[in-house]
UniProtKB/TrEMBL annotation:
PANTHER family: LD09343P. PROSITE patterns: TTL. Gene3D superfamilies: ATP-grasp fold, B domain. This is Uncharacterized protein. It holds the Pfam family TTL. Keywords: Membrane, Transmembrane, Transmembrane helix. SUPFAM superfamilies: Glutathione synthetase ATP-binding domain-like (SSF56059). The chain crosses the membrane at residues 21-41. The keyword Transmembrane helix applies. It comes from Chironomus riparius.
């Protein structure tokens, strides 16, 4: 019996299709489908690419922070370091040749003179929270030489006098004291006998001040050291100083007061020996060290306690700013401006006497940061100072920003979530603080804090994270504040000092 083979395919007309026929059919269909589909996908890919290209073009690039520089002197060099550092940080400069043409869409306004010089061009009450200005209104009481020395009673500021009668009366009671006469507007310092002084408070451009007769000499030369100080906020007050470096200036001649007309021997004037030209300092700099290293090396070499010097520096800065803060608060209130829109960089000029007692001679607004071509170390110091300053106030941050405000809640939470600023959990978790906030003990609890208080705390935390080479001198522990100053500190400052102390208990690095 023959074997019966199964039919591969049975057609109605009984014709058979073998395997090779089926394979051929599949191949033909596949080619046809490929040709159809490739045309379809090609057209759609073109459309898709076109669409994507349009979408990319339509996406707006993030806005850059914008800054304006206004020197008021038509000197392109005077703010060159500020300009250079801001440019490197990616900010966009708005060129303004005439202050009457100031636009509204700026984030940072850096002026050389008091910003009051722009009063006729800017309505300060319209300044937004995300706009920053580099001067405080009312800071004249801090930077004016005559106001600094005649208003307040500090043992670290040589006593000043605004009229001849007062200085002569004081000289009679203190026969061993000597005095200099100074121009209120600039230097013009020279020793003078009290009997020869002839000026009045109302009409004169001069004032008188005690002379420090026994200055510490460095290789026979009188010198001062200058500290850069930043105030980022008033009421609550936040103050920092740049501790990586100092600037040093030396008299042109070895110290002597034998000939009072030879002011180059006892006055550190506009003409002076700068840091890098003084042999002792030059040796440090050429070996890769800072002016501060040279200064500390000298103090140690003569047997001085450098830690005590820095403690005096911090006390002088803190005490001086605390007593002058009220004038800045009043100035901002007069402008009806947001207090969060102002910050300031100062230079505190100090000298030491032979016993290493520190004296504050003056405070400079808009300190010189112009690098001289043959002084590379100055250029690097000023640029580093400015970079740290801008980082402190929120420009050189690690995330993209379109303003000085946080861009969104996610970024805010990532950088400074509120669990980083809350303190006293045992108190705040009690039933009494959960029920109401009337008790003073509950004032730091998150549910009891006003929005303004929360913002200030978050800003303080941001600055703590971004302070770089700046050291905070206020707020500090209560015991670091002189007792006679405590009674005049604002209620808000006392609140933040107490919060600061609690933060230090929670995280020692915060201190």
């Amino acid at each position: 019996m023959s074997e019966e083979r199964p039919e591969a395919v049975m057609l109605s007309n009984n014709r058979r299709w073998n395997i090779s026929s089926i394979t051929l059919l599949v191949a033909v269909i596949s080619v046809a489908l490929y040709q159809l589909s490739s045309g379809f996908f090609e057209k759609n890919f073109e459309k898709s690419s076109e669409l994507k290209s349009k979408e990319i073009k339509s996406i707006k690039e993030p806005s850059k922070l914008k800054y304006i520089l206004y020197d008021g002197l038509n000197r392109s060099d005077i703010l060159i370091t500020v300009d250079r550092v801001l440019s490197r940080l990616g900010l966009e400069k708005i060129e303004v040749s005439n202050p009457s043409n100031l636009p509204n869409d700026w984030n940072l306004l850096w002026t050389f003179y008091y910003h009051e010089s722009l009063n006729e061009f800017i309505n300060w009450s319209d300044i937004k929270h995300h706009q920053k200005v580099n001067h405080f209104s009312g800071n004249y009481m801090l930077v004016s030489k005559s106001f600094l020395t005649t208003h307040g009673n500090f043992d670290f500021i040589p006593k000043g006098f605004l009229n001849s009668e007062d200085v002569q009366k004081y000289a009679t009671a203190h026969p061993n004291k000597r005095f200099v006469i100074k121009l209120k507007s600039s230097r013009g310092v020279k020793l003078i006998e009290p009997s020869e002084m002839n000026f009045s408070q109302k009409s004169s451009d001069y004032f008188a001040q005690e002379f420090i007769d026994d200055p510490l000499l460095w290789n026979g030369y009188k010198f001062d050291f200058n500290i850069f100080v930043v105030i980022t906020s008033v009421n609550p007050l936040r103050v920092y100083y740049y501790k990586k470096n100092v600037f040093l200036r030396f008299c042109l001649k070895p110290y002597s007061t034998a000939n009072i007309s030879d002011i180059d021997a006892y006055v550190i004037g506009t003409d002076h020996i700068a840091c890098q030209s003084f042999p002792y300092v030059k040796a440090y700099v050429e070996a890769g060290y800072t002016y501060k290293d040279a200064f500390e090396g000298f103090i140690k070499e003569i047997g001085g306690d450098i830690d005590q010097v820095w403690k005096q520096v911090e006390n002088v800065i803190r005490s001086t700013v605390l007593i002058k803060e009220k004038y800045m608060i009043n100035g901002i209130n007069r402008l009806k401006a947001s207090k969060n829109s102002f910050f300031e960089l100062y230079r505190f000029d100090m000298i030491l006497d032979k016993n290493l007692k520190l004296y504050l001679m003056e405070v400079n607004m808009s300190p010189c940061t112009v690098p001289v071509t043959d002084r590379m170390h100055n250029k690097l110091m000023y640029e580093h100072l400015m970079f740290n300053l801008f980082t402190l106030i929120g420009i050189g941050t690690a995330y993209e920003k379109e303003s000085f405000q946080f861009p969104n809640y996610d970024v805010e939470s990532m950088v400074a979530y509120h669990d980083a600023i809350t303190v006293k959990p045992k108190t705040c978790l009690s039933s009494s603080c959960n029920a109401n906030c009337t008790s003073d003990a509950c004032k730091f609890c998150w549910n009891c804090l006003s929005e303004d208080y929360r913002i200030e705390m978050i800003q303080a935390l941001q600055e703590q994270m971004n302070r770089g080479y700046f050291t905070r001198v206020f707020p500090v522990q209560k015991e670091d504040i002189k007792e006679d100053l405590w009674k005049d500190i604002t209620h808000l400052n006392k609140f933040y000092i107490e919060w600061f102390q609690e933060m230090c208990k929670k995280n020692k690095q915060f201190c």
